[in-house]
Structures are given as structure tokens and as C-alpha cells.
Amino acid sequence: MVMEKVRGRGFLGVISLVTVFLSGSIGEAQSKSFLVNCGANNSVNVDGRRWIGDWVPNDNFTVSSPGVATTDYTANVDSLYRTAQIFYNGLNYTFAGVQGNYFVRLHFCPFALENYNVNESSFSVVANGLKLLADFNVPGEISDKYLHLQNSNSNSSSLSLVKEYILAISDVLVVEFIPSKGSFGFINAIEIVPVIGTLFADSVSKVGGSDANVSGRGIETMYRLNVGGQEIKPDQDSDLWRKWEVDSSYMITADAGVEIKNSSNVTYASNNYSSVAPLLVYETGRIMSNTEVLEKKFNMSWKFEVDPDFDYLVRLHFCELVYDKANQRIFKVYINNKTAADNFDVYARAGGKNIAYHQDYFDAISAKFNTLWIQLGPDTAVGASGTDALLNGLEIFKLSQSGNLAYDDRIGPAGKSASHLKSWILWLGIGAGVASVLIIAIACTCIFCFCKSQRNEMSNTKDNPPRWRPLFMHGAVLSSIANAKGGVQTLNGSVAAFTRRLEACTGAARGLHYLHIGADRGIIHRDVKTTNILLDENFEAWMRANATETSITSSQALEDLELRVAEDAQRRNCSTSI
Asked: Which interval of the chain is the signal sequence (predicted)?
């Protein structure tokens, strides 16, 4: 992981290395912290530490192109947040003599600034070439953070924001603040604290797979929780000055877990783990509250909003505070609905009761998701005496990729740059264009096929005279209709004779009569239309049904009908003269 690098040259290098370890000079160098009170010309004491104003000349750091210092002593915030450095151009802080692994914390508090609207601020931050923030808006980040809390408590009352990073620094640390185009940025304080001891290993267990190598990657702290206990303030985490929030704000159902406490004789499994977390974290915990129910199907669940398309390291802290032997509390650990560990026995793994222990897991979040779930539930398959789960602390770290830790919710990881966005837009436009052409082509094809089928049908009745025509197109029928209206209709250039018109009408009547009594399945009235009654060249009626034509055979009933039609026409003295 992020490890201290000490390099020597040849034999002299080896002698120097031994001398360094014997004299403890590295420990002395590592103990040096940098605390900057930005936008101030004086120093302030906060949490028992002295923060130096960046407008005061000193040998600890330098500031290039200072911006505008602003102060609001009426603000209801800690004294550290009553001043700020505002910048419209690039602003650099350079810290010399920095070697090893360091916590780098950036403090922000968007208090009311005269002539400045902090809601419109936007800027980026880069540390030794590693992008930490991109187009960052402090008020928006604070609102988004507390918007996604599962439950409300003291976590949601803070107006300040601290962005924490863990970086390996060889000699000099340069922190650059870059305002977005047409905007400005601000910073209230900068905190640089050395990491004492080994904080991370190079290899981490991958969820659902083998180990993952995470060496050499920058780290951002996303969440740090004291599970089942009260908030741990920075001055309670000696040397490293970390803040541990309460966990209930992130639980799906806080009542799913019961808080437990036992502060007697809690120790670390190894002295190397003393920097991992303070003992206060291991003196409290949370166990399942449904241990007496018949069906052991409930889990303790925590939900966190994270940045998509990044790798994450999840650290879980355990300490068995109740049982004094193994196989009493065995459970499963789930991360993002995947089994990270089963048959998990804290007592067996830690080596006893009241012994602090932690376990790291690696998991990748795809670009499609922005949540990370952590769940603990009973493992009933192993036959333990108790079906329960336990957790004392929880941390989530984001790992850098390609020199980037920043995320812009408009375009994703900032390392993918604007060119990636332009390329994506270009391909989107090409895809939309191709889709439009295909839709138009399909529509034109459908229209062409429909028109062609209509032309083919009409050609069967006009261009190539068939042996039948639809009733509404038959000249004899049309002539009768036209004559009734006082007009004249011709067929093939000659006037239709009375007998032919009478035959046509008789054929039409046969068709209608067939629809009522001749069809096997009875009449469907929607079929009673002129396009479905066909007359051949001899004026015999045919019926169109499901693309086939059925001849209507003459019968006594139809002959009687024809006779009645003729007699009725004579009785009414219907004029059929042309």
C-alpha cells in the first residue's frame, strides 16, 4: 500500500539505513505536522494544537500568489473556520521536508462571505500531480452528503466539511488550488499529519475472489464510523487526529442492532495495529437484536453513497466483548450483496476475548452504481452455538486510478477528461444518426410494400380485367346508382343495358342474401361491404373471405329472390332508361 520508502546507495546506503533506525531520526521526522489557518494573519489554538496563519511569514510552508483573506468572527463555527483564503487564480501551498506517509486534510466551511456567494464557487485540487478534487462545490457536497443519510442525528448538524487523503510523499508536498473557469474557490485550513506505523498492507482480500494488490495507490477516506458507540473526536484519536462518526445514520434499520460496551482490558492483537484505530473503537460494538427469533434471516445493514467507477478498500473492526471461547458467534459478511466472508468467528480470528482485530476487503464499484452495502448476518450452516453477528468499527477508502481520485458527477472520474466526454458525445451522435436512417428506411419500405400491394389489387380489377370485380367498381351497378341520381354511367364506352343492370343488382342481392343464410359460420356484419361482394363477368356473386373467393351457388331461394327483385322493379315502374 502506501509505504515509506527509504533509499540508500551501496554500502554507505546500508550503513545510513541502520543508523537511521538506531537513532530514530525517521520517527522524529515523521512526527512533524503542518497546520495552516488559511486567510489569517495570526495563529489559533484548536484541539490543543497551534494552527499558523498563512499570511504570517514562517519556515514551515510557502504560499504562491495569495488570494483574498476574509474573516467572519460572528459566524457560529469553530475558530478554525472563521477565516478563509479566497482565490480567483491558481493558489499553491508548498511544504518542504515531508517524507513518508501522511494524512492530508482539507477543511472547508461555507460561511457567509461579504461580496462572495460560496454557492457559486467551483475549483479543483491537485497534490503532487494526483488530482484530489475536480470542479468541486463545497455547499453542494455538504448537502449531498447529508441528503443520503439513512437516519438523522448529530452527524447531520455540521456545516463544515473535511476531505481526507493518505499520500506517500518523498520530500516536498505541493497542494494546488485551481478555480474553475469564471468561478472562484476557497479554503479554510490545511492539515498534514504523519502516519505512524503501518496503516495498510500491500495485498487485500478481494470480495468473491483472490487477493488484490493495492500498493502505490493514493487513498481518500470516504467514511469512518465507530459502530455502536459515540462520536470519537480528533483529539481522542491520539497522534493521527481522526474523527469517527456514529454509525446509526447509515443503517437501514438502526433497531436491527443492539449496542454493547466493555471497556475492560481491551488490547491490540499486535503492537503494529495500534495506529489502525484507537481502543475506543473496540470498546463498543453492535450485535444483532433478533437473536431470540425463530427464523434467523435478518441482517445488520449499512448503506453508503460512493463515487462510481472506482475501487474501494473496506476495513471492518472487530473485538469479541462477550464470549470467552470460540464457536459462540459465527456470521457472514456481505459487501454489495456478495459474500466477503463466511464462518466468521471473531474470537478465533483475534485469538481471544477483548482483543482488537481488523479485516480488509477490496471491491470495485462499476460506473452504473453509486452505493456500497455492508451487511452482517448469521451463518446458520456451520452449527454454531449462537447465530449472531458483531461489528465494532467501519472504514471505507477510495483508491486512485491513473493518478486520479476526483469525481465529477457530470462526466464521471475526472481522469477521463473532457476528451472522453467529447468522444462519448460523438459516438452518441453517430448512433442517433444511424438509428434515424434505419427508422426512415424501414418506414419507407413499409409504405412501398403497402402501396405495391394496393396497386397489385387494383391492377387485377382494372389493368388486367379479371372474371370478377368488387361490387362498388362494377359498371352496371354504378350506372344504376348514377341513373337514380339523374346521371349517366358508362362501361367500356357504351351505355349499360337494363338487363345487364338488373343482372348486376340480382347478383348483388345474392351476395347479401348469402351473407345472412349461406355462410357456414354466420354473418359478420363488418364483412357486409361492397369490397367483399364480387361479381364475375356473368354477374354471378362471389364472396371474398380471408383472401379466398367463394362462389354462391344458385338455389331456389336465390331464384325466388331474383324474381321478387325483378317484380318489385316493374311494380315500382323504376325507370332504367339511359
From this structure: 1-31
327: cell is 464457536
Q: Which of 396, 403, 331 is nearest to 365 (CA)?
A: 396
Residue 479 and residue 471: Cα distance in Å, rounded? 12
What is the grid cell recorded at 34?
A: 503542518
Q: Give 486's pLDDT tier (boundaries 50, 70, 90).
A: very low
Q: Which CATH superfamily is domain 199-404 in?
A: Galactose-binding lectin (2.60.120.430)
Longest dimension (CA), the chain: 137
CATH topology of domain 1-14+24-195: Jelly Rolls (2.60.120)
Residue 1's pLDDT is 46
**Domains in the chain: boundaries:** 1-14+24-195, 199-404, 468-571
Among candidate residues 316, 355, 307, the one with its CA nearest the CA of residue 335 = 316
DSSP reduced 3-state for 532:
helix
Q: What is the pLDDT of residue 272?
A: 85
Shared fold status for 1-14+24-195 and 199-404 = yes
Task: Render pLDDT for 243-278 as a digit per residue (tens, 0 to 9).
Answer: 999 999 999 988 888 999 987 789 998 888 889 999
Between 556-571 and 498-517, two packed helices, what is the crossing angle to 10 degrees?
A: 130
- Cell 343495358, residue located: 497
Which letter does DSSP use for residue 148 in this model? Answer: T
The whole-angstrom separation of Cα 166 and Cα 224 is 14
Give the mean pLDDT of the chain.
78
Using CB atoms within 10 A of its CB, is residue 79 exposed (0-12), middle (13-18) or buried (19+)?
middle
Residue 92 has pLDDT above 60, yes or no: yes
Q: Do residues 262 and 321 touch, judged by C-beta distance below 8 A?
A: yes
Q: Are 430 and 422 in contact (CB under 8 A)?
A: no
Q: What is the DSSP letter of 543?
A: E
Cα dihedral 248, 254, 256, 257 in deg (nearest 10): 40
Is the predicted pLDDT of residue 523 greater than 60, yes or no?
no
The predicted model gives 206-234 an average pLDDT of: 93
Which residue carries 380471408 as its cell?
Answer: 546
3-state secondary structure of 199: coil
Q: Which residue(s) pair with 163 in the sheet?
A: 106
DSSP letter, residue 244? B
Burial class of residue 525 in the structure, from the number of CB atoms within 10 Å of its CB (0-12 exposed, 13-18 middle, 19+ buried): exposed
225-248 burial code (b ≥16 CB/10 A, e <16): bbbbbeebebebbeebbbbbbbbb
Q: What share of the chain has pLDDT > 90, as a percent?
A: 45
Share above pLDDT 70 across residues of the chain, in percent, rounded to a whole number: 66
Positions marked catalytic: 527
Label residues 145-154 b or e (16+ Cβ within 10 Å = b).
eeeeeeeeee
Contact 195, 31 (CB under 8 A): no
Best CA proximity match to 38, nearest among 22, 20, 56: 56
Is the predicted pLDDT of residue 396 greater than 60, yes or no? yes
Other CB atoms within 10 A of residue 305 CB: 15
What is the Cα gyration radius of the chain?
Answer: 43
| Paired strand residues for 104 | 165, 192
CB proximity list for 290: less than 8 A, separation 6 or greater: 256, 296, 298
DSSP annotation of 278: -
Please give the pLDDT value at position 216.
87
